[in-house]
Structure formats: C-alpha cells, structure tokens
Amino acid sequence: MSIKFDRAAAVLFLAVGALFMYGSMQIAESSYGSVVGPNIFPFFLGAILFLLSLRLFYETFHYEKKYGKKEPLQMKAFIIIFLAALLYIAALETIGYVITTFVFLFICFQTMERGKWLKSIVISACFSAGIYYLFVVVLKGTLPSFPVWS
Q1: Among positive and negative, which fits the CA dihedral 40, 55, 17, 81?
Q2: Which residue would you say has higher pLDDT here, 67 or 114?
Q3: What pLDDT does 87 receive?
Q4: Which domain of life is it from (predicted)?
Q5: 3-11 long-range CB contacts below 8 Å, 24 or more apart?
Q6: Residues 78-85: contacts with CB under 8 Å, at least 24 apart
Q7: How many CA atoms within 13 Å lie on the side-chain side of 97?
Q8: Tens of pLDDT along 18-41?
Q9: pTM value?
Q10: How many CB atoms lie within 10 A of CB 69?
Q11: How far is 148 from 144, CA to CA, in rounded Å?
C-alpha cells in the first residue's frame, strides 16, 4: 500500500463525490413520468464515493500498524479499470445500461482476479440485470435500455 497514492486518491475521489452530489442537484427532479427522479441515483453514488473516500483517507493514518510493509502499486490494473470506466461513460447511452454495465463489471473482475470467467460472468450478469430490474421495474425509474441502432 502506498500511503501517498492512497491519500491523493482519497482526496481526488472525495472531490469527485462532492461534485457528483452537487451536479445531481442540478438535474431536474422528474422526467418521463418517473416516480424516482434522475437526480437520486447519481446523488447516492456521489454520497457513497464521498463516504468511502473519507474512510480511505482515515485508514491511511493507520497503515504502518495494520500492514507493516509497502505493496507495489498496481498501475496496470488501475489504468485498465480507469479506461474501462471512461468507455462505460461513453457507451452507456448508445449501448444501454444492462450490456454496458455487464461488460464494465466483467472487465473489472477479470482485471482484479484473472481466470475465473464463469464467476465473473454470473456476478456481472446478475448485478446488471438485477439493478436494472430494481430501478426500472420496482422503483419506476429510468435507465438507458437496450441499444436502438438504426
């Protein structure tokens, strides 16, 4: 674990979480007749990111006691997941939530733990379909559905 990198990442993600929460308050309350407004999901994602960043920043003060030694930075994994996140953002509207989220999660799981294909596929599929069902069907919200290519 690199204390400097984790502290910098915690501060960066803290700012991103705060910006997510601020930006979500600028979105209109309701659209397309949705009971749950489009501002709810990004606000909670920003709040979760904000809180987890606070936790990471707090934990950096206890690294020596907890871990004792430094671990090398995993820059390759970070770059792969970062690029996958950028592609996820770019493709979400055109490809749709379910497919884009499935591919993003699959790439992330394979980056973190290679070789467990079936486990990665099952978890990615269940999560993306389950969240879509919960948000769209149960909560009557809106998410980009499946692709509508012409």
Answers
A1: negative
A2: 114
A3: 92
A4: Bacteria
A5: 3/60, 3/63, 5/73, 6/56, 6/59, 6/60, 6/63, 7/57, 7/60, 9/56, 10/53, 10/54, 10/56, 10/57, 10/60, 11/53, 11/57
A6: 80/107, 80/111, 81/107, 81/108, 81/111, 84/108, 84/111
A7: 15
A8: 888 888 887 666 555 566 666 777
A9: 0.59
A10: 7
A11: 10
| 32 CB-near residues (< 8 Å, 6+ apart) | 142
Closest of 48, 64, 47 to residue 6, by C-alpha: 64
Report which of 18, 16, 112, 4 is spatially closest to residue 57, judged by C-alpha positions.
4
Q: What is the mean pLDDT of the chain?
A: 82
Answer yes or no: is pLDDT of 138 > 60: yes
Instruction: Pick 34 or 93 by higher pLDDT.
Output: 93
User: What's the token pair of residue 97?
Assistant: 């939530």
- C-alpha distances in angstroms, 70 versus 37, 48, 144? 44, 27, 42
